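ugh ok so i messed up the first submission bc i forgot one of the chains. this is the corrected input, ALL of the components this time, i swear. 529 residues overall. if the numbers dont match what u have on ur side tell me asap before i send this to the collaborators (the ones from the other lab, u know who)
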Amino acid sequence: MTTLLNVKDLRAYYGQVQALHGLSFSLNEGSLTTLLGANGAGKTTTLRAICNMVRSTGAIEFDGKPLNNRSTENIVRFGIAHVPQGRGTFTTMTVEENLQLGAITRKDSAGIVSDIERMYAHFPVLKQRHTQQAGTLSGGEQQMLAVARALMLRPRLMLLDEPSFGLAPLVVRDLFGILGKINREDKVSILVVEQNAQLALELADQAYVIETGRIVMSGNAKDIANNEEIRKSYLGY
Amino acid sequence: MELFTNQVLAGIATGAIYACMALAVVMIYQAIDHLNFAQGEMAMFATFVSWQLMQWGVPYWGAFVITLVFAFVGGVAIERILFKPLAKAPVLTNVAGFIALFAIINSSAGLIWDFTIKQYPTPFGSSPFLGSQLISTHQAGMIGVTVLLLIGLYFFFQYTRIGLAMRAAASVPESARLVGINTSWMIALGWGMASAIGAIAGMLIAPVVFLEPNMMGGVLIYGFAAAVLGGLTSPFGAVVGGFLMGIFENLAGTYIPGVGNELKLPIALALIISVLVVKPAGLFGRHIVKRV
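and heres the new structure output, hopefully the right one now
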């Protein structure tokens, strides 16, 4: 198994405040890895640091190439799609335009058209609403749209920041089912940050637990889920 | 009745110019959240460039096209040199930047071409349009060019990838970067386009207001009024606001006793304030709720 993403000694700062204190982890090609941790542990910051949306030091390598000092929009071109917290919907634009924007760096117009159809097959509700303003969609639908928009890049790695946030439990199940399918069938590696540890561990194969900007635990998702001590002290269920 | 029709048509003609200026202002406002006070001066300078080209013997439409290119490049350059470094600066710093730009362009134009009033040619002539006494060919030309421009812009923003990317960059910059759009250059492109749109407005209105460094002062105020009336968040609203403003200005000048030509401008300012009081987001604008 080859390593797709390798993060070493990552330190991130918001102004004078340090949010990550030398965090290291790696993600294998084809894997679905989850980063778990409480509020403020540094999960979102880790994802933002990978896309250079926050000031950071340390080494971030994607497929053997360093990502440091590249702009966010250039990092996307490596095939890294980031679904941000809060979904980042282009609310004033139509659903279809949102999908087209996901593919804005691609040049193959025929491929884009067929990928939009593929997304409608994954998420039928988006097809029903393709001419609607994206801001009028429900939270769950917007999350579907955000995932679909990210997939339009044909990414090699997808970063998901709390996809379950604010969604009804049934919708979350649905969404996670689709994520698993995308991971298996489309061979997209996924790094998902979650507060809903139970669900994330069911879905993932690898897991890391962050506490105050450091990795405190790592391993096979099943092992972590079965370890009562870790569950109680770090994951709260 | 003929007076009324005449005033409305003339209002649509000047309204077309206000619509262009309002649109230019809104484009930059959408991109950087600031009002470009120097929009009119940029347009004036471009108009002078076209005049200079014609003085050197370039035919009207040749000068028109060269000036558009000049205005576009100039707009991009102003953004890169002056406003990109100010992107994260406080509002007042930006305002100071715009005022500086205003003063620099205004004085440079005065220095190069002096402050005497110059005639500016019209390619359309000024005979009655299609034999009708209601509107002149130049007024018809102003409307025609503006309508073509608006249709072109509509297709650009609605149906091209770069137009889509520009809209995305203006509406949710962070998400735009996350799909791989270089938002910084999209802002520069917006400046270039706004500057070129302003140049068109300047070249079309110059035969009416005559060419001099302060020619766009009044026009820009009407443009601002139009943008506020239509809503600063809505390009469509800005255009409608421009046409309404032109018609309103003419009808007020004709029918309200004592207004005449002199008080038309204060009426525009009064309109800005009334709209802001009654409908702060403008006729077509969206209410922006900001979390603080």
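quick check: The first strand of chain A starts at residue 3 and ends at 14. that seems consistent at least. The interface with chain B takes residues 51, 53, 71-74, 76-77, 81-82, 84, 88-93, 97, 100-102, 104-105, 149, 153 of chain A (CB under 8 Å).
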